[in-house]
Amino acid sequence: MLSCKHTTHLLSEALDRPLSRRERFALRFHLLFCRGCRAFQGQMDFLRKASRSFIHWRDAGDQ
Amino acid sequence: MTDTRNAEIISGFRPQMLKFARLQLQDDSGAEDAVQEAIEAALGGIDRFAGRSALKTWIFTILRHKIIDALRERGRTVQVSSLERDESELDEAFDALFKENAHWSPQSRPKPWGDPEEALQQRQFWHVFETCLEILPARTARVFMMREFLGFETDEICTTLALTTSNCNVILHRARAGLRQCLNQGWFAGEAQPC
């Protein structure tokens, strides 16, 4: 079973490259049982979303 | 007449453009140059733009490309040396969240961030976000911004900055984990945590 620390690395890499089938399986299995890593995953997705909104925020910022 | 008005609008964007460019280039004169070039390029094709917000999106797109060019050009001369200390401090802070067996220690296990979407609507949140970016070690922040703001593929970042793929992955993970931690403390900590 993956450690939580290893899981955080896979969750980050999943944003940059397609994971292998084996990695996806191990990740899914770990997330099933680990609330902490599920929360971490949500936060990684949020970071991406926030970064993509960064310039749009600047649009609104001066109105 | 319209041209003058557009030129005025564009110069109104200047401070924000500068801030955006400085954040990524970490260099005042480089940022000035990128902004200046973007403004000149924008003035060249200005007739096609009616709305203010379309104009702004467009000019930031140009600026983004100018920043990308500057970063590419600079790729070979990036200095890595003195930043390593900051990076290892960030890694130590991350390692401290785990027990010996590399699972979360109970007090630092991540908890969901209530309603993060709502944060995106709040000006104050973006100030925290910006501060969190600014306090990341310079190279860490640069790689993160190349990936997430400028949309580089990881391969290209590695090549541009002469890093190995695994090095790049480690840096991106460090940046994300560092930002997560900073936002957690700086913004989300005050929220009620659902069980």
Automatic annotation (TrEMBL), chain A:
Pfam families associated with the record: zf-HC2 (PF13490)
Residue ranges annotated for the Putative zinc-finger domain, each copy included: 4-38
Tree of life domain: Bacteria
Protein name: Zf-HC2 domain-containing protein
Lineage, uppermost ranks: Bacteria, Pseudomonadati, Pseudomonadota, Betaproteobacteria, Rhodocyclales
From TrEMBL, chain B:
Keywords noted in UniProt: DNA-binding, Sigma factor, Transcription, Transcription regulation
Pfam families recorded: Sigma70_r2 (PF04542), Sigma70_r4_2 (PF08281)
Domain RNA polymerase sigma-70 region: 12-77
Domain RNA polymerase sigma factor 70 region 4 type: residue ranges: 129-177
The keyword Transcription regulation is assigned to this record: yes
InterPro entries (UniProt xref): RNA_pol_sigma-24-rel, RNA_pol_sigma-70-like, RNA_pol_sigma-70_dom, RNA_pol_sigma70_r2, RNA_pol_sigma70_r4_t2, RNA_pol_sigma_r2, RNA_pol_sigma_r3/r4-like, WH-like_DNA-bd_sf
GO biological process: one example: DNA-templated transcription initiation
One GO molecular-function entry: sigma factor activity
Record SUPFAM superfamilies: Sigma2 domain of RNA polymerase sigma factors, Sigma3 and sigma4 domains of RNA polymerase sigma factors
Homology family: Belongs to the sigma-70 factor family. ECF subfamily.
UniProt xrefs under NCBIfam families: PRK12532.1, Sig70_famx1, sigma70-ECF
Protein name: Sigma-70 family RNA polymerase sigma factor
Organism: Zoogloea oleivorans
Record lineage: Bacteria, Pseudomonadati, Pseudomonadota, Betaproteobacteria, Rhodocyclales
